[in-house]
Amino acid sequence: MSSMQRSNTMAKAVSFRWAPDFAAIQQVLVQRVLPPVVIIALLGILWELLCSSPGAVLPPPSQVLRDTWELIVNPFYNHGGNDVGMAWQILASLERVAYGYSLAVVAGIALGVLVGQSTWAMRGLDPVFQVLRTVPPLAWLPISLAGFQDSTPSAIFVIFITAIWPIIINTSVGIRNIPEDYRNVARVLRLNGMEYFTRIMLPAAAPYIFSGLRIGVGLSWLAIVAAEMLIGGVGIGFFIWDAWNASMISDIILALVYVGIVGFVLDRMVAFIGSWVTRGTAQG
Amino acid sequence: MNKTNKGNPVLDRRRFLQQTAGVVGGTALLSSLPLSWAVASGRPETTSAKLGFIALTDAAPLFVAVEKGFFAAHGMTDVEVLKQSSWGTTRDNLVLGSQRNGIDGAHILTPMPYLMSAGAITPNNRPVPMSVLARLNLNGQCISVGNEHADLKVRLDTSEFAEAIAAKRSGGDAVNAAMTFPGGTHDMWIRYWMAAGGIDPNRDISTITVPPPQMVANMRVGSMDTFCVCEPWNHQLINQGIGYTANTTGEIWNDHPEKAFALRSDYVEANPNAAMALLKAIMEAQMWCEDPANHEEMAQICSRRRWIHAPYADLIDRIQGNFDYGTGLVIEDHPQMMRYWKNQASYPFKSHDLWFLTENKRWGYLPQDFDSQALIEQVNREDLWREAAAALGIDSADIPDSTSRGVETFFDGKTFDPEDPQAYLDSLEIKRLA
């Protein structure tokens, strides 16, 4: 819930920016932008100090910038093969994640509702879920490959199967935690199945579902390296693997920064949709 | 849809047989005709092929065939040469084929197309028929040893190394030897080298599979004592001060066969002219790679992000044949440097494939009664190589008379006679027959 409140203040901060109130903008800058900038600068200086000695095992940030400068300033170049700019690498990966994650959302919520509604299904499926959710993404790759006999659906399946578990589990917990009062109200009002689903179940479970969706989107982005190991070509996951192959530590660090930022943006997007959806249904 | 799919290969095979018969009959005629005529006669059925590679210097002919336009010159304008993350994924993508978003062919460890055709390394042991069209190189791999054993300065004789690891093992520490794929060439070299000095690679040391990129990092944290892999990892190990080069594998077996150029057999059957065009382009690229005048440009091509993506400085030395072993020993212009064309490097000798299958039997990867000859007749397409050589007008000195290079001699004096592989197996003390 605290994250939701934080998102709400974020939303307010965004609306402030539209007013020509410079004092407010300044306040936002000082309160919201300054702390992370200061911390990042301090960490950067610490890293630089720790790694600038001659025998350092990791490159300092100044060297990372020097090594990767061409990649940073030309995000859209294309030299053929998988030698393309970081923007293309990230877009290619985002496309794969979009497919895998969308499927996980649909299947995860459906299974979560089933497990949340039916005690028998819960008893049957829960142990299966608890075991399968611990399987690392990499282990799914050969299995999906043997099953699908095609590399593209296999990669998407790896993302799907990594992202689905928190969605199922959170949805089922949310459904099971619908207050008894709500169920009684539904009985009093004689809501039919469809009405119960849209008017009671989804709004009541939405905060849980969206926390599952947020964990899921983070995991699906994490699975990208495993998913792209096989298909190779263009993609940030294969870029990391390739940089590792060539022991280009600076490239890996740059990729980690991009992966982190994209993951952060994805998380914020799902959180924003979550706060928007839950408020919308509550008002409706 | 199934019907048309089933119908085409049959038709294609018939057409292929007719054409092959014609070409074989006219080989003498062909070689006297200009190149352009030969190309025009066999217009490729498709202009596309997807070929995989691992970022190693022995894949250079594939890079060069793209960069210098050899594929395009033979009408293969849409060849994609795609980086694979490990030998395991090369295998997986070959099993799929390009129609299911995999690859049609690859730069590959010579035993792998055999193990795939035999179903030994494929899912559910389902055979995936493969064809070896050419050898890509001779020599050029290295065995490295960690600095923990720096005072031994291990070279070819492993008897002192055997005592060192036995002592380490009795102290309760794990000892590991790493290679890149079970049954692959690196596995064969490191096992042969250890066994020759009395180390049983199954009992005295754990022989483990580690992808090439992890070799240096794993040795740094002390999780392995020795490994066998291609460049640039051995050189990088020295540059990082973690270990040294014990030997380059040509010193174990002079001019030993290494990587192969292999295609899925269904690709060759459906596109005989395209397969021939690919083969010719790769042979021309191999000749280009062999020429010392091209070595600097080749190292520059290799260093690009799209190909090996390693610093030029790490690549050029051993491409030019200058080996610094990291122990004070330096050999310039090494007699066992990597060969792409010289010494009949490109021709896929059947006798060499037989050694790999025999050595796979030695370590129990294949059963003892496995019919090696039958599989070689199916997988080895030296007939296509000869056809391509004739069409390219190759000097007859570079074309072997026989499919066998004859008796091979190893550094420890053991010999392998392709006429009698069993005698070779019997002559070896350490083995694990299945």
Automatic annotation (TrEMBL), chain A:
Keyword set includes ATP-binding: no
Location(s) in or outside the cell: Cell inner membrane; Cell membrane
Annotated ABC transmembrane type-1 domain residues: 90-274
Question: Any idea which UniProt keywords this protein has?
Answer: Cell inner membrane, Cell membrane, Ion transport, Membrane, Transmembrane, Transmembrane helix, Transport
Which SUPFAM superfamilies has this protein been placed in?
MetI-like (SSF161098)
Record family assignment:
Belongs to the binding-protein-dependent transport system permease family.
**What organism is this sequence from?**
Billgrantia aerodenitrificans
Q: What highest taxon heads this organism's lineage?
A: Bacteria
The protein depicted here goes by the name Nitrate ABC transporter permease
Q: Name one Pfam family in it.
A: BPD_transp_1
Report the membrane topology from the UniProt record.
Multi-pass membrane protein
Residue ranges annotated as transmembrane are: 98-116, 154-175, 196-215, 221-241, 253-277
Keyword Chaperone annotated: no
Q: Fetch the InterPro entries from UniProt.
A: MetI-like (IPR000515), MetI-like_sf (IPR035906), NtrB (IPR005889)
Q: What is its main location?
A: membrane
UniProtKB/TrEMBL annotation, chain B:
Localisation: Endomembrane system
Instruction: Tell me the keywords, alphabetical order.
Output: Cell inner membrane, Cell membrane, Membrane, Signal, Transmembrane, Transmembrane helix, Transport
Asked if the record carries the keyword Disulfide bond, the reply is: no
Superkingdom assignment = Bacteria
Transmembrane feature ranges: 21-40
CDD domains for the chain: PBP2_NrtA_CpmA_like
One Pfam family this sequence matches: NMT1_2
Q: Coiled-coil stretches, from where to where? A: none
- Predominant location of this chain? membrane
Record-linked InterPro entries: NrtA/CpmA_ABC-bd_dom, TAT_signal
Which PANTHER family does the protein's record reference? ALIPHATIC SULFONATES-BINDING PROTEIN-RELATED, NITRATE_NITRITE BINDING PROTEIN NRTA
Protein family according to the UniProt entry:
Belongs to the CmpA/NrtA family.
Name by which UniProt lists this protein: ABC transporter substrate-binding protein
Highest classification ranks of the organism: Bacteria, Pseudomonadati, Pseudomonadota, Gammaproteobacteria, Oceanospirillales
